[in-house]
């Protein structure tokens, strides 16, 4: 029963993991780790509470564990296919998406977490604060600082383009 409920959350889990890692393979690994932890520790889930918050908290903690184990940060490289459509509208939209991905990747881990939960997955402030185990006011201020940093980074990138 719990396994099928968790399985129904897979698209949201993957989207949240992708918003944290920005690498498909890392996101898949993170979701797999979260699934293993959730199924292996299913007795820790309290029926009647939000399953998605419990799962997102597992993903968040798994990502923090991963970040701590890495010796250095991954660098964001544009895929080879990024230059295939130079000169058309697709290329411009693709460049904007890459710029946003790069800007988000430059955020601190705690800012990426709030952006991933609130702006990417669409959780409400209270639910996101519950997932992160922080007060709503702290989440609100982190989100405001993250948005400010994103705007500044994107503005700087726009100015740097020829």
Sum this structure up briefly.
Belongs to the sigma-70 factor family. ECF subfamily. With 162 residues, this protein is mainly alpha-helical.
Outline the structure in words.
- The protein is 72% helix and 0% strand.
- It is mostly helical and 162 residues long.
- It starts with a helix and ends with a helix.
- This is DNA-directed RNA polymerase sigma-70 factor.
- Pfam families: Sigma70_r2, Sigma70_r4_2.
- Belongs to the sigma-70 factor family. ECF subfamily.
- InterPro entries: RNA_pol_sigma-70-like (IPR039425), RNA_pol_sigma-70_dom (IPR014284), RNA_pol_sigma70_r2 (IPR007627), RNA_pol_sigma70_r4_t2 (IPR013249), RNA_pol_sigma_r2 (IPR013325), RNA_pol_sigma_r3/r4-like (IPR013324), WH-like_DNA-bd_sf (IPR036388).
Q: Which features would summarize this protein structure in a list?
A:
162 residues, 0% strand, globular, 72% helix
